[in-house]
Design a protein that fits this description.
- The structure holds three protein chains of three kinds.
- Chain A has helices at about 1-35, 40-50, 55-80, 85-105, 110-140, 145-165, 200-215, 220-230, 230-235, 240-260, 260-270, 280-290, 295-315, 320-350.
- By secondary structure, chain A is an all-alpha fold.
- The two termini of chain A are about 15 Å apart.
- By secondary structure, chain B is of the alpha/beta class.
- In chain B, β8 and β9 (about 105) form a beta hairpin.
- The chains are: A mainly alpha, B alpha/beta, C mainly alpha.
- Chains in contact: A-B, A-C, B-C.
- The interface between A and C is large, with 52 and 47 residues.
C-alpha cells in the first residue's frame, strides 16, 4: 500500500519538477541572451511577486482566475474530455455576472446579490460548456475541436453584443454593475491597497475543495472518473457515459464561468472585451502541472500567477514576454515528461505474483 | 535462437530460451499463455531486442536486428491480431513497406498485377482491389499470409492462427502451410492447442515460464506428454480448453460439482428468453439476425461459432450495451429489450465480458473499486460513497474468490491475467444474480484459473442459475454446456445437446456447410 | 460588385489557409493532431520577415520562413513522436511558445515587441499575383493530393495514420514517416505565414490572428482530404471577402461572418452534412 502511494506520488510530482527545471534552463538562456544575470533576474521576479504586499496581492488576484480555469480543465479531463473552451467560458461567465449585476436594483443586499451573480456566471459558463458535451454525446463531435471553434464563436458573439448594445461610449466595456460586488482584500489588509485581489479567492478555494469531495468521495465522482479512465468499462457497469460527458462539460464550463467573476464582481465591476487574455489556455497548463488534482491545481495556479506577476517586475531588464516563453516551455516539458516518467515507473514496478 | 533473455520490468518473459528449427520443417512452439512464446517470436521478427542470448538465421548472427532486417532475411510473422490497415485495399496492404514504384510514385497497376500473380500461385485468392475493411476474418488472414509471401518469406511464423477460424478453414490453412513447406519454406506455429500440434507439426518446442523446457519429435510423443511438459506437473487439465478431449473426467468433475452445496440468493433463478432478436453490427448489417433461445434455471447454454458471427453483438445486446433493432429479451417474464444496463443488473443479470481490459475492469482503479462497478449505487448514501462498507465487501470477495495477492487496495492493473479475471468473476458471481452471460470467461488466463472458473460456473448452474456461455474454444463449450447453440452469420443454425455432440458436425454448422436445423 | 475583384480577393485571402490546411492534412493523416498550425504560421511569418529584412531579398525570406516553420514542426514532432506527449497539450504549448518567442526576439532585435520594420515583399494588392507565393499556394493542393494518393510515401502516411502497428510490422518506419509528415506540415504552414508577412511587408505581433485555426477547421470540414480541404479554404475565404465588400452596406455584423468557418466545422463534426471520420490513429499515444 505504501509503495503504491509512493508510486502515485512519484508519478504526480516528478513531471512538474522536471518541467520546472527545463523552464529554468530555458529562462537562463533567454536572460543571458539579453546580457543579464539569471540569478539577479530570478531574484527580482520573486521579489516583485512575493517580496511586497502589493505584488503578493496581485499574485492572489491572478491565482483566483487561474485556479478556476485550471479546475475547469482538470474536471473535464477526469471524465476524459479536453475542455479547451476555458477562454470563452470565462468570458461568458463574466458577461453573465455583469448582466445580473446590471439588472439587479442598486442596493440589493450582498447576501442576495452575490449568489445571484455567481449563479448567472455559472449558468452562462455552463451553457457554453454544455454545447460541446451534448455534441460529443449525441453526435460524436470531438470536444477539442468544438471547444476551440466555440471560443471564436462565443467571443465574437459577446463582442457583438457588447460593442453594439451594451457598451459605455468610447469604451469596449459595459456600465458598472449596480449590485453584487465582492469586497477587495484591501478593505481587510490595508497593505494590499491598490491591488485587484478580492474575496473571490475564497470561492476559488471552495470550488477546489468541492471538486475534491465530488471526484473522490461521491458516487457521481466515481462514475465520472470511471468514464474518464475507461468509457467502455463504465458503460458496462451501467453508467450512462453520455450523461456523464454532458454533466462533466457543463460543470467544467460552470467552474470556468465562475472564474469570470473575479474580474467583474471583484475588480472592475464591469465586463470588458478581451479581459480574459489567455487565462483559459493557461488553465490547460495548470491542470497538467497540477496533475488534475484540485490541490495540485491550486498550487500550479499560484506558480503561474507568480510567474505572470513577476514578469512585470523584470520588464526593465528583459521583456515581460519572456514569461510567455517560459509558460510554453513549462507546458511542453510537462507534456513530454508525463509519459516518460509514467513509462519509467511502470517499467520499474513490481508485478505481484499470482 | 540460443539462451534468449528478455525482461519487462520485473517480469522475466524469456529465460535462457532456445529454439532451433531446420529448414523445411513445420515446427510447433507450444506453451501456456504467458509462457513467453510471443516474446520469443517478436525477438525473432525484430520487433524486440533480447537482453541476452543470440539469434542466428541460416548460420548468420542476427541478434538484435530490426523488423526490416528480419523481413529482408525472409522472416514473415502472421500476428494473432491482424496487422492490416482497414481503409486500404488488399493490394495496398500486401505491398505496404515494399511498394513497387516509379521514382517516388506508387505503381498501383504493378502492385495489383503482382498480388494477382501471387494469389494464383498460392491459391490464396482474395482480390487486390477490395478494401480490407470489407473482408471476413478468414480472408483477412489470407491477406496476412500473402503479405509475408510477397516479401519472400522463407520462415513463416504464425501466432495462434486458428483462434478465429472454423474447422474447415483450419484445414484450408493447413493445406496452404504444407504447400509452403513443400516449396522449401520453414514454418513456426505458435499455439496452445495440442490437437493442432499433433495434426500438423513435425517437431515441437515446449515453453514454460519463459524457458524452453523440451524439444520433441511429434511422432515420438503424445498429447499428454506435451501437456505434461507444458505445465510441469501432472495436472488433470482435461477440462482446460482444447488440450485433451477426454470424457470421463468431465463427468467426474460434473459429479463433484453437483455434490457441492448450492449457494442461494435473492434472485435465485429465472429463465432468460430471447425472441427473434435483431442487432445491428459495426458495418450497418444485421450482426444478429433473428436469434431465439431460452435458458432454463440450472442450465448452461453454450454458444459455439467462429468469432465474428454475431456472438459479441448477441451478448452485448442482452447485456444492454448495444441497441436492439427487433425482437425481445425477457428475464423471468420482465421485458428488458430496451432497458438500461442498470435495470438489467437490478433484474438479476450478471455479465462477464469478453474483453476484461477494455470492459471488464478499470485498470487504474483499485480492486475494491472494481468490485463495486455496476453496484456503486448500493454503496453510496446521500451521494457519497461508504468507504468502510466497500472495503469489507472487497475483503470478503477477495477471500472467497482467492484473488492473489489478497490486497483489494492495489490497482487492478498490477494483477496477473488470471487474477484480473477472478476479480471480474467475483464481482459478477459474488453478488445477487439469476442469469449470467459469460463471454470468453477463460480467455488468456492460466490453467489454475481456468479450473477455478469452470468450477464456479458449474456450481452456479447447479445452484439453479441460467448461464449463457460464449467461447471461441469449442472444447470449452462442449465441456461445460448442457446444450450447444451454433451461430453462423448472425443466426443460430443448430441447437444440440452437448453430451453427444460431434465436434465435426458442429464445425460444419459453424461454417454454414450444413443446413440450419434451428430457427 | 466586380466578380474578378471578388475572385481575386478570395484567392489572396485563401492562400495562407491553403498552405496551412494542406500542412494540416498531411500531419493529421499521419496521425498527429495539428492544433499547432497557428504556431507554425507565426513562426514562418517571423523568420520569413527577418530573412527578408536582413538579406533584402524576398526569396531568401521565403526560404527562411520555410526553415522557421520547419523548426517549429520539428519541435512538435520530437515532442509527440519521440516523447509521445499528448498532441493537444503540445499544440497549445507550441502556440503559446511561438507568440512569446517572437515577441521576445522582436524586442531584442528591434526594441519593439509589436512589429518589425518594413521588409521586402513580392508586391501587394493586385500585384500580388506576381508573387510566387500565390502560385505556390494554388499549386500546393494538387501537389499534396498527388503525394498522399499517388506516392509510396503517401501510402505510408495513410497507413501510419490508420494503423501504425500494422505499418511497423511490415518494416515501415512509423516514426520517420511521422517526422517527415510533421516537418512538411511545418514547412507548408510556415509558407502560409511567410505569405502574410511579405504581403504586409512586415511582421506584426500575433499577425496570424487565428488563421491557423481556420485552416484546421478547413481540414476537418474537408474530411482530411486535400481537395475537400481546399474547397473549405476557398469557401471560408469567400465568406470573408463578402464580409469585407459588404462592410459599407453593413447589413450583417462582421462578427457573424467571422463565425462562419467555426460554425460550419461544428456542424460538419456533428454529422449534419455527412459525418467527418478522422484517421483512426489520430492523436493516439502508445503507452
Amino acid at each position: 500500500m505504501s509503495s503504491e502511494l509512493r508510486t502515485r506520488l512519484e508519478e504526480s510530482l516528478i513531471p512538474p519538477l522536471v518541467a520546472l527545471l527545463v523552464a529554468l534552463v530555458i529562462g537562463d538562456l533567454l536572460i543571458l541572451l539579453f546580457g543579464q544575470s539569471p540569478s539577479t533576474v530570478y531574484r527580482m521576479l520573486l521579489e516583485g511577486a512575493l517580496g511586497n504586499p502589493y505584488g503578493f496581492a496581485q499574485v492572489i488576484y491572478k491565482t483566483t482566475t487561474l485556479t478556476f480555469a485550471g479546475l475547469a480543465v482538470a474536471f473535464a479531463l477526469r471524465a476524459g474530455l479536453f475542455n479547451i473552451g476555458g477562454e470563452s467560458q470565462i468570458a461568458a461567465g463574466a458577461f453573465g455576472a455583469a448582466v445580473a449585476g446590471l439588472m439587479l436594483p442598486a442596493g440589493t443586499p450582498w447576501i442576495l446579490a452575490i449568489p445571484l451573480c455567481l449563479f448567472a456566471a455559472a449558468t452562462f459558463g455552463g451553457a457554453v460548456g454544455w454545447v460541446p458535451g451534448v455534441l460529443r454525446t449525441k453526435f460524436g463531435a470531438h470536444e477539442v475541436i468544438v471547444t476551440i471553434m466555440l471560443n471564436f464563436i462565443v467571443l465574437a458573439l459577446l463582442n457583438w453584443i457588447v460593442t453594439s448594445h451594451l457598451h459605455v461610449a468610447e469604451t469596449v466595456h459595459t456600465p458598472d454593475i449596480r449590485a453584487g460586488t465582492v469586497a477587495p482584500l484591501s478593505s481587510f489588509f490595508s497593505a494590499f491597497h491598490g491591488s485587484a485581489a478580492n474575496l473571490t479567492i475564497l470561492f476559488a478555494l471552495a470550488a477546489a475543495a468541492w471538486m475534491w469531495w465530488y471526484l473522490f468521495r461521491t458516487r457521481r465522482g466515481y462514475e465520472l472518473r470511471a468514464v474518464g479512465l475507461q468509457p467502455d468499462a463504465a458503460e458496462y457497469g451501467g453508467i450512462n457515459v453520455g450523461g456523464v460527458w454532458i454533466r462533466a462539460m457543463t460543470i467544467s464550463g460552470m467552474i470556468a464561468g465562475l472564474g469570470g467573476t473575479n474580474f467583474v464582481l471583484g475588480y472592475k465591476h464591469y465586463y470588458e472585451e478581451g479581459f480574459v487574455g489567455g487565462a483559459g489556455f493557461l488553465g490547460i497548463a495548470i491542470a497538467l502541472v497540477g496533475r488534475n488534482h484540485p490541490v495540485g491545481v491550486v498550487i500550479a495556479a499560484f506558480f503561474f500567477a507568480v510567474l505572470s506577476q513577476g514578469g512585470l517586475a523584470i520588464h526593465a531588464f528583459v521583456p515581460k514576454q519572456m514569461v510567455e516563453v517560459l509558460q510554453g516551455a513549462v507546458i511542453l516539458a510537462v507534456a513530454v515528461s508525463v509519459p516518460a516518467v509514467r513509462a519509467a515507473l511502470i517499467r520499474s514496478r513490481r508485478v505481484p505474483a499470482s | 535462437m540460443v539462451a534468449i533473455d528478455k525482461r519487462f520490468g520485473s517480469v522475466q518473459a524469456n529465460r535462457r530460451a532456445s529454439l532451433e528449427v531446420p529448414r523445411g520443417e513445420i515446427h510447433a512452439l507450444v506453451g501456456e499463455n504467458g509462457a513467453g512464446k510471443s516474446t520469443l517470436m517478436r525477438i525473432l521478427g525484430g520487433l524486440m531486442k533480447p537482453d541476452a542470448g543470440t539469434v542466428e538465421v541460416n548460420g548468420r548472427n542476427v541478434t538484435g536486428w530490426s523488423t526490416q532486417d528480419a523481413i529482408r532475411a525472409g522472416i514473415g510473422v502472421v500476428h494473432q491480431h491482424f496487422m492490416l490497415v482497414p481503409p486500404l485495399t488488399v493490394a495496398e496492404n500486401v505491398v505496404l513497406g515494399k511498394e513497387p514504384h516509379r521514382g517516388p510514385a506508387f505503381d498501383r497497376a504493378r502492385a495489383l498485377r503482382e498480388v494477382a500473380d501471387l494469389e494464383q500461385r498460392t491459391g490464396l485468392v482474395v482480390g487486390g482491389e477490395r478494401r480490407v475493411a470489407d473482408l471476413s476474418v478468414g480472408e483477412a488472414q489470407r491477406v496476412e499470409i500473402l503479405k509475408t509471401l510477397y516479401r519472400g518469406a522463407e520462415i513463416l511464423v504464425l501466432d495462434e492462427p486458428t483462434a478465429v477460424l472454423s474447422p474447415p478453414e483450419v484445414r484450408d490453412l493447413w493445406n496452404v502451410l504444407r504447400t509452403v513447406r513443400d516449396q522449401g519454406g520453414t514454418i513456426i506455429l505458435i499455439t496452445h492447442r495440442l490437437d493442432e500440434v499433433m495434426d500438423l507439426s513435425e517437431a515441437i518446442t515446449v515453453m514454460r515460464a519463459g524457458e524452453t523446457v523440451a524439444r520433441l519429435k511429434t511422432g515420438e510423443t503424445t498429447a499428454a506428454g506435451i501437456a505434461h511438459a507444458m505445465v510441469g506437473r501432472a495436472v488433470a487439465l482435461t477440462e482446460a480448453v482444447g488440450f485433451l478431449p477426454e470424457e470421463q473426467t468431465t463427468a467426474e468433475l460434473e459429479a463433484a460439482g453437483k455434490a457441492a452445496p448450492a449457494p442461494s440468493a435473492g434472485h435465485a433463478s429465472a429463465t432468460l428468453s430471447v425472441r427473434d432478436l435483431v442487432v445491428v453490427g459495426a458495418r450497418g448489417t444485421n450482426a444478429v439476425d433473428g436469434v431465439s433461445f431460452e435458458i432454463a434455471p440450472g442450465e448452461i447454454l453454450g454458444v459455439a461459432g467462429v468469432e465474428g458471427n454475431g456472438q459479441t453483438e448477441l451478448v452485448e445486446a442482452i447485456a444492454g450495451l448495444r441497441n436492439v433493432r427487433g425482437g425481445s429479451i425477457t428475464l423471468a417474464g420482465t421485458d428488458l429489450t430496451h432497458a438500461s444496463v442498470d435495470r438489467r443488473r437490478a433484474a438479476g443479470l450478471a455479465h462477464v465480458p469478453e474483453d476484461r481490459h477494455r470492459r471488464g475492469l478499470i485498470l487504474d482503479y483499485t480492486v475494491a473499486d472494481n468490485l463495486i462497478l455496476g453496484s456503486q449505487q448500493r454503496f453510496s448514501g446521500r451521494g457519497s460513497l461508504d468507504e468502510n462498507r466497500i472495503r469489507s465487501y472487497a475483503d470478503a470477495l477477495t477471500r472467497e474468490f482467492d484473488i492473489r495477492p489478497p490486497d483489494p487496495a492495489l490497482a487492478a492493473r498490477l494483477f496477473s491475467g488470471g487474477n484480473q479475471q477472478k476479480v471480474v468473476i467475483a464481482r459478477e458471481m459474488g453478488g445477487d444474480f439469476s442469469v449470467l452471460l459469460a463471454s470468453q470467461p477463460t480467455r488468456g488466463v492460466d490453467v489454475g484459473a481456468i479450473e477455478f472458473i469452470h468450477r464456479r460456473l458449474r456450481e452456479a448452474r447447479d445452484a439453479g442459475k441460467s448461464i449463457l456461455l460464449v467461447s471461441a474454444e469449442l472444447n470449452e463449450v462442449l465441456a461445460l454446456a448442457d446444450r450447444v447453440a451454433v451461430m453462423y452469420r448472425g443466426r443460430i443454425v443448430a441447437i444440440l445437446p452437448a453430451r453427444h455432440a460431434d465436434p465435426e458436425v458442429i464445425g460444419e454448422y459453424m461454417i454454414g456447410a450444413r443446413e440450419p436445423t434451428a430457427a | 460588385m466586380n466578380p474578378f475583384e471578388f475572385i481575386g480577393q478570395t484567392l489572396r485571402i485563401a492562400v495562407p489557409y491553403l498552405f496551412a490546411a494542406q500542412g494540416g492534412v498531411i500531419a493529421e493523416r499521419a496521425g498527429i493532431i495539428s492544433l499547432t498550425l497557428e504556431g507554425f504560421m507565426l513562426g514562418g511569418a517571423f523568420t520569413g520577415a527577418l530573412g527578408s529584412y536582413y538579406t533584402g531579398s524576398a526569396w531568401l525570406g521565403l526560404a527562411l520562413g520555410m526553415a522557421g516553420g520547419l523548426a517549429f514542426g520539428a519541435l512538435h514532432a520530437v515532442a509527440t513522436v519521440r516523447f509521445r506527449a499528448n498532441h493537444v497539450v503540445v499544440g497549445i504549448a507550441i502556440n503559446l511558445f511561438a507568440i512569446g518567442i517572437t515577441r521576445v526576439i522582436l524586442k531584442l532585435l528591434f526594441d519593439s515587441s509589436s512589429n518589425s520594420p518594413r521588409v521586402e515583399g513580392f508586391g501587394t494588392g493586385l500585384q500580388s499575383f506576381s508573387s510566387p507565393l500565390v502560385w505556390m499556394g494554388l499549386l500546393v493542393t494538387p501537389a499534396v493530393a498527388w503525394m498522399l494518393y499517388r506516392t509510396t510515401f503517401g501510402l505510408r502516411v495513410r497507413a501510419v495514420g490508420e494503423h501504425p502497428e500494422a505499418a511497423e510490422s511490415v518494416g515501415v518506419r512509423v516514426n520517420l514517416v511521422r517526422y517527415v509528415a510533421v516537418a512538411l506540415s511545418g514547412i507548408l504552414a510556415g509558407l502560409g505565414g511567410v505569405y502574410l508577412a511579405l504581403d504586409q511587408h512586415q511582421f506584426t505581433d500575433g499577425m496570424t490572428a487565428g488563421r491557423g485555426f481556420i485552416a484546421l477547421a478547413a481540414v476537418i470540414f474537408g474530411r482530411w482530404d486535400p481537395w475537400r480541404a481546399a474547397g473549405a479554404c476557398l469557401l471560408f475565404a469567400a465568406a470573408e471577402t463578402l464580409q469585407i465588400q459588404l462592410q459599407s452596406v453593413g447589413f450583417i455584423p462582421a462578427q457573424f461572418v467571422a463565425m462562419i468557418p467555426y460554425l460550419l466545422t461544428i456542424i460538419a463534426l456533428a454529422g449534419v452534412v455527412g459525418r467527418s471520420q478522422p484517421p483512426a490513429a489520430l492523436g493516439q499515444v502508445k503507452e
